[in-house]
Amino acid sequence: MVSSSDKTVEVGEMEVGTVVEEKPVASNGEETKELTLEEKKAKVAELFAEGKKHYFAQSLEDACRVLSDACKLSDELFGELSAECYEPFFFCGRALLDWAQIEDKVIDHAMTGMPLPKTTDSGSSAANDSIDEEKYENPDKVSEEEREKIREEVGEALAEGAAKKAEELETEKKTEGDQQKDEKVEDAGKDADGGEEESEGEDEEMDEEGDGEEAQATTTMQDAWEYLEVARAICDKFLAESDDWKHRKINTLLFLAECSIGDEQYEQALSDLDVCLELQKAVATDFSTDRVVAQTYFTIARAHKLNDNFDDAARHFDMARDILKAKIENLEKELNSAEEVTRKQTESAIEEMKSIISDLDLKKQDAEDSAKIRKQVEDMSRKVMKEMADQMAAIGEDKPVNDITMNLRKPAKRPAGDDAEVVETEAKKAKETGKQEEEKEEGHVSPAPEN
After folding, report:
1. What is the mean pLDDT of residues 14-35?
2. Strand residues in 99-160 grouped as ranges (E)
């Protein structure tokens, strides 16, 4: 076998045994030139801008692919945990988080047979969608035609992702096939047994690749957490330089908490949110009216509710509501002196916050109701256990004691006057018996008494 560095090159009719340095080749067969430092920086900026464009257009798969390339190139160019790496890692983590949440929704709706809610361009649920709320509350009211349509839509969504995966796998197989052909030419002298072992090894490798793809499909949320964790580490590195890095860390922690909630790591989410609140107290101009603080309290409430801490959830829903109410009061005071354009924006913000407050009231009521129901269940359980214990105690008290003294045999009583005669008679019998035994041992028997 000849290595690539030992290949000979024909020059006219001569063979020159010189080492040829191979140049990088693009997929179309053309040689690619090495990028300069400035070109690499421009490439990072280009990839990042393209990734953000895909992200805000909700083309999440393309966004994740392009932004991950931007992360890799920026890490190579600027160094690990550099300030320039923050935004690519932050937005890549956000895109992966949104993608993971959509995957979860597709699975949930596919299992329940319900349609996915319509979304606006920003990815949030539309305020007035065409789905009947009553059908969500009672799925039995959905007609058979609608159920069939739902199954088709979910199937198409899942099939689209599977098709893309299949194309990627086919491309990989073709590349591997070309490599295997080269290896077979080089290893033509191997025996048949070796060939069979190689074939078995290839089958095992393909099985491992299939298992790897299945594992990868279940770790999108974990990938999002890892990218955001890198962004958090970058913030920590530059935290003392300016308040801007504190604000960046606040945003990063909020998305990290969403990742932890998605993975049901509620304690980790609450820990990150506590750090987030401490930073907000340090940098917020008015903590009591800051909407980001309200969002933090809302996320804390969600984590508590999902972790069955309903009382804590209701309390934090209420805290988020109080902040929004205070913010509305401040904005209403500014309306009179605001310009026309600013007035419309302010009025829109007020209406939005009022809608959020109504939703918070419902969530708080739901948490309080859940707390009451759980308390009733616990009280009922304690009552049942107490009744069972009382019944067992009562059964133990009613059962008669098993007195065995009545079963003991008592000696028969004799008349008091007969005791002396009985003792004397027994003594005479014992004396005669002992005398006879002594005579037998001496070999003679005493003569019988004469008549």
Report:
1. 50
2. none
Is there a single domain that holds both residue 257 and residue 111?
Answer: yes
Tokens of 261: 């909630």
Distance, in Å, from the CA atom of 49 to the CA atom of 14, rounded to the nearest integer, reads: 52
Retrieve residue 336's tokens.
């009179």
Query: Tell me, what DSSP letter sits at residue 11?
Result: E
Query: Is residue 116 located within the same domain as residue 254?
Result: yes
> Tokens 């805290």 — which residue?
319
Alpha-carbon distances, residue 187 vs 182, 183, 196 (angstroms): 9, 6, 13
- Residues 228, 309 within the same domain: no
With contact defined as beta carbons under 8 Å apart, do 44 and 11 qualify?
Answer: no
Considering the domain architecture, whether residues 98 and 45 belong to the same structural domain is answered as yes
- The answer to whether residues 238 and 387 belong to one domain is no
Number of domains, the chain: 2
93 DSSP β-pair partners? none
pLDDT tens figures, 207-235: 555 555 444 445 799 999 999 999 999 99
User: What is the C-alpha separation between 298 and 260, in angstroms, rounded?
Assistant: 15
> Same domain, yes or no, for 294 and 263?
no
In the chain the first and final C-alpha atoms are separated, in Å, by 139
Contact call for residues 361 and 321 (beta carbons, < 8 A): yes
Task: Give 302's contacts (C-beta < 8 A, 6+ positions apart).
Answer: 261, 313
pLDDT bucket at 150, cuts 50 / 70 / 90: low
Evaluate if pTM is beyond 0.85. no
Domain holding 315, by residue range, is: 284-394
